[in-house]
């Protein structure tokens, strides 16, 4: 069984195109879990219009944070394999089929993607090439290559990465670095989504970060402290 977790907020412009690209790839017993962070546009009504039992909508959430909105979806995921998904991208038609063989061998898989504009015109053929993505704790601690919308992983890792620490800014680097330390990861050189960049994006991925150097350092110190704390708990459990 596969669970696809989507965090939505005012995504009416692109959510239908994204859902259409996913639904044709999944089986009857798979699920799409959508946690909506109190959208004020037609996002929820568009989702409900599908009337598809595979779509599970968690509406009227008030996290005001994509990180904890994703956490809400992850908490109810039932699949053996979990895919993270943004509301405004488009999946390549064989994305799931191509990632499953790697998920059978690794705890976490990250695919490449094509960076596109609002109208799906290609900006960059490879996100990996753009930011030099590759595995490695130190490398990703300095410059994160774990792009959430390109990540999938075994459900077992949720035992340790959840709950997300309240002090972290983004979930993808937390999950990626955690599995770097205590599991197995792989980056596959296949562009399996169209990663859409537009004026309403909530992150600066594929663009230059607006954070100052000091802010970046402080965030990484906090992140490292949380990883050490959670790692000690994991070792005590084992």
Structure description:
By secondary structure, the protein is an alpha/beta fold. It has a single domain, classed as Spore Coat Polysaccharide Biosynthesis Protein SpsA, Chain A. It is built from 9 helices and 9 strands. The protein has helices at 15-23, 43-48, 66-75, 95-103, 127-131, 137-142, 158-161, 171-182, 213-237; strands at residues 2-8, 31-36, 55-58, 81-85, 90-91, 108-116, 122-124, 151-154, 185-196. Strands 1, 2, 3, 4, 5, 6, 7, 8 and 9 form a 9-stranded mixed β-sheet that branches. The longest helix has 25 residues, at 213-237. The model has no long low-confidence stretch (mean pLDDT 92).
Supply the CATH superfamily name. Spore Coat Polysaccharide Biosynthesis Protein SpsA, Chain A
Q: Quick one: CATH class? A: Alpha Beta
Query: What is the third-level CATH name, the topology?
Result: Spore Coat Polysaccharide Biosynthesis Protein SpsA, Chain A
**Span from first to last CA?**
27 Å
> In percent terms, what proportion of residues is strand?
15-25%
Largest sheet: 9 strands, mixed
The portion of residues assigned to helices is 25-40%
